[in-house]
What does this fold into?
Amino acid sequence: MCREPRNSEDLGKSNEASESLESGCWPPTYIATVTYGREEFAELEIGDALFSLDPGVNVCKTPYRGVLLVKTSLTEDIVSRLLSVYPPSTLRRFMRVLFCCERSELTKCLNDNAAVLSKTYFSSLRVSTRSGVSYENIAKLLNTIGCQLNRERGVILSVEPLRNFICFTKQLLTFKKIS
It folds into this structure.
Protein backbone atom coordinates (compact mmCIF):
# COMPACT_ATOMS: atom_id res chain seq x y z
CA MET A 1 0.00 0.00 0.00
CA CYS A 2 0.98 3.61 -0.36
CA ARG A 3 2.69 4.93 2.75
CA GLU A 4 1.38 7.99 4.53
CA PRO A 5 3.69 11.02 4.41
CA ARG A 6 5.31 11.75 7.78
CA ASN A 7 6.58 15.28 7.21
CA SER A 8 6.50 18.08 4.66
CA GLU A 9 9.46 16.60 2.76
CA ASP A 10 7.69 13.22 2.50
CA LEU A 11 4.48 15.02 1.45
CA GLY A 12 6.29 16.51 -1.57
CA LYS A 13 7.65 13.10 -2.53
CA SER A 14 4.20 11.51 -2.19
CA ASN A 15 2.61 14.18 -4.41
CA GLU A 16 5.40 13.79 -6.95
CA ALA A 17 4.88 10.03 -7.04
CA SER A 18 1.12 10.25 -7.45
CA GLU A 19 1.51 12.76 -10.28
CA SER A 20 3.64 10.20 -12.15
CA LEU A 21 0.50 8.45 -13.39
CA GLU A 22 -0.37 11.62 -15.28
CA SER A 23 3.22 12.39 -16.33
CA GLY A 24 5.49 11.29 -19.15
CA CYS A 25 5.45 7.75 -17.78
CA TRP A 26 1.77 7.04 -18.46
CA PRO A 27 0.87 4.71 -19.97
CA PRO A 28 3.99 2.81 -18.91
CA THR A 29 5.95 0.53 -21.20
CA TYR A 30 7.51 -1.30 -18.27
CA ILE A 31 7.06 -1.61 -14.50
CA ALA A 32 10.05 -2.13 -12.24
CA THR A 33 9.98 -3.29 -8.65
CA VAL A 34 12.97 -2.08 -6.69
CA THR A 35 14.36 -2.14 -3.16
CA TYR A 36 12.07 -0.20 -0.79
CA GLY A 37 13.51 3.17 0.13
CA ARG A 38 15.89 3.14 -2.85
CA GLU A 39 13.42 4.41 -5.47
CA GLU A 40 15.35 7.60 -6.28
CA PHE A 41 18.61 5.71 -6.78
CA ALA A 42 16.78 3.07 -8.83
CA GLU A 43 15.35 5.82 -11.09
CA LEU A 44 18.90 6.92 -11.86
CA GLU A 45 20.25 3.39 -12.32
CA ILE A 46 17.50 2.27 -14.71
CA GLY A 47 17.52 5.60 -16.58
CA ASP A 48 21.31 5.45 -16.99
CA ALA A 49 21.18 1.85 -18.23
CA LEU A 50 18.62 2.67 -20.96
CA PHE A 51 19.62 6.26 -21.83
CA SER A 52 22.41 5.34 -24.26
CA LEU A 53 19.90 3.73 -26.65
CA ASP A 54 16.88 5.88 -25.75
CA PRO A 55 17.67 9.45 -24.65
CA GLY A 56 13.92 10.02 -24.26
CA VAL A 57 13.50 7.36 -21.55
CA ASN A 58 11.38 8.37 -18.53
CA VAL A 59 11.51 6.63 -15.16
CA CYS A 60 8.96 7.76 -12.57
CA LYS A 61 8.06 6.95 -8.98
CA THR A 62 4.53 5.84 -8.14
CA PRO A 63 2.40 6.19 -5.00
CA TYR A 64 3.61 2.67 -4.11
CA ARG A 65 6.99 2.26 -2.47
CA GLY A 66 9.29 0.03 -4.46
CA VAL A 67 7.40 0.45 -7.76
CA LEU A 68 8.61 2.55 -10.71
CA LEU A 69 7.12 3.18 -14.14
CA VAL A 70 9.33 3.21 -17.22
CA LYS A 71 8.39 4.75 -20.55
CA THR A 72 10.78 3.94 -23.39
CA SER A 73 10.74 3.13 -27.08
CA LEU A 74 13.13 0.19 -26.59
CA THR A 75 11.92 -3.34 -27.26
CA GLU A 76 11.77 -5.91 -24.50
CA ASP A 77 14.71 -7.83 -26.03
CA ILE A 78 16.95 -4.75 -25.99
CA VAL A 79 15.86 -3.67 -22.51
CA SER A 80 16.38 -7.20 -21.16
CA ARG A 81 19.88 -7.38 -22.65
CA LEU A 82 20.86 -3.95 -21.33
CA LEU A 83 19.59 -4.63 -17.82
CA SER A 84 21.18 -8.09 -17.77
CA VAL A 85 24.58 -6.77 -18.84
CA TYR A 86 24.42 -3.79 -16.44
CA PRO A 87 22.05 -4.97 -13.71
CA PRO A 88 20.92 -2.12 -11.46
CA SER A 89 21.72 -2.97 -7.83
CA THR A 90 18.23 -1.96 -6.67
CA LEU A 91 16.20 -3.81 -9.32
CA ARG A 92 14.15 -6.81 -8.18
CA ARG A 93 11.69 -7.48 -11.04
CA PHE A 94 11.27 -5.89 -14.47
CA MET A 95 8.03 -6.39 -16.38
CA ARG A 96 6.68 -5.46 -19.83
CA VAL A 97 3.22 -3.89 -19.58
CA LEU A 98 0.81 -5.70 -21.89
CA PHE A 99 -2.19 -3.50 -21.00
CA CYS A 100 -3.80 -1.72 -18.07
CA CYS A 101 -7.47 -1.87 -17.07
CA GLU A 102 -9.54 0.46 -14.98
CA ARG A 103 -10.67 -1.47 -11.90
CA SER A 104 -14.32 -0.73 -12.63
CA GLU A 105 -13.96 -2.14 -16.19
CA LEU A 106 -11.77 -5.16 -15.39
CA THR A 107 -13.96 -7.89 -16.91
CA LYS A 108 -14.69 -5.93 -20.09
CA CYS A 109 -11.04 -4.91 -20.44
CA LEU A 110 -9.84 -8.51 -20.09
CA ASN A 111 -12.33 -9.61 -22.75
CA ASP A 112 -11.11 -6.81 -25.04
CA ASN A 113 -7.49 -7.88 -24.52
CA ALA A 114 -7.91 -11.65 -24.72
CA ALA A 115 -5.97 -11.71 -28.00
CA VAL A 116 -3.02 -9.93 -26.38
CA LEU A 117 -2.84 -12.56 -23.64
CA SER A 118 -3.22 -15.46 -26.06
CA LYS A 119 -0.03 -14.41 -27.94
CA THR A 120 2.19 -15.41 -25.00
CA TYR A 121 2.59 -18.65 -23.07
CA PHE A 122 2.35 -17.99 -19.34
CA SER A 123 3.72 -20.57 -16.92
CA SER A 124 2.33 -18.98 -13.77
CA LEU A 125 0.30 -16.12 -12.42
CA ARG A 126 1.49 -13.60 -9.82
CA VAL A 127 -1.07 -11.19 -8.36
CA SER A 128 0.32 -8.33 -6.28
CA THR A 129 -1.16 -8.24 -2.79
CA ARG A 130 -1.72 -4.48 -3.16
CA SER A 131 -3.95 -5.03 -6.19
CA GLY A 132 -7.08 -5.38 -4.10
CA VAL A 133 -8.08 -8.24 -6.38
CA SER A 134 -7.60 -11.83 -5.28
CA TYR A 135 -5.52 -14.38 -7.12
CA GLU A 136 -8.59 -16.60 -7.38
CA ASN A 137 -10.68 -13.82 -8.95
CA ILE A 138 -8.02 -13.03 -11.57
CA ALA A 139 -7.50 -16.74 -12.33
CA LYS A 140 -11.27 -17.20 -12.78
CA LEU A 141 -11.49 -14.16 -15.10
CA LEU A 142 -8.54 -15.43 -17.15
CA ASN A 143 -10.19 -18.85 -17.48
CA THR A 144 -13.42 -17.27 -18.75
CA ILE A 145 -11.53 -15.59 -21.62
CA GLY A 146 -9.64 -18.80 -22.45
CA CYS A 147 -6.23 -17.87 -21.05
CA GLN A 148 -4.71 -21.08 -19.70
CA LEU A 149 -1.39 -21.42 -17.90
CA ASN A 150 1.18 -23.79 -19.40
CA ARG A 151 3.40 -24.87 -16.50
CA GLU A 152 5.91 -26.55 -18.84
CA ARG A 153 7.01 -23.36 -20.59
CA GLY A 154 6.40 -19.68 -20.62
CA VAL A 155 6.84 -16.55 -18.54
CA ILE A 156 5.10 -15.18 -15.46
CA LEU A 157 1.93 -13.15 -15.95
CA SER A 158 2.10 -10.53 -13.21
CA VAL A 159 -0.85 -8.36 -12.13
CA GLU A 160 0.23 -4.98 -10.74
CA PRO A 161 -2.03 -2.22 -9.35
CA LEU A 162 -1.51 1.46 -10.15
CA ARG A 163 -4.12 3.57 -8.37
CA ASN A 164 -7.45 2.87 -10.08
CA PHE A 165 -5.77 0.74 -12.77
CA ILE A 166 -4.67 -2.87 -12.78
CA CYS A 167 -1.83 -3.61 -15.20
CA PHE A 168 -1.19 -7.00 -16.72
CA THR A 169 2.51 -7.54 -17.29
CA LYS A 170 4.90 -10.09 -18.69
CA GLN A 171 7.75 -10.60 -16.25
CA LEU A 172 11.05 -10.28 -18.14
CA LEU A 173 13.73 -10.24 -15.45
CA THR A 174 13.98 -11.29 -11.82
CA PHE A 175 17.01 -10.43 -9.72
CA LYS A 176 17.88 -12.15 -6.46
CA LYS A 177 17.66 -10.03 -3.36
CA ILE A 178 21.17 -9.21 -2.19
CA SER A 179 21.59 -9.23 1.59
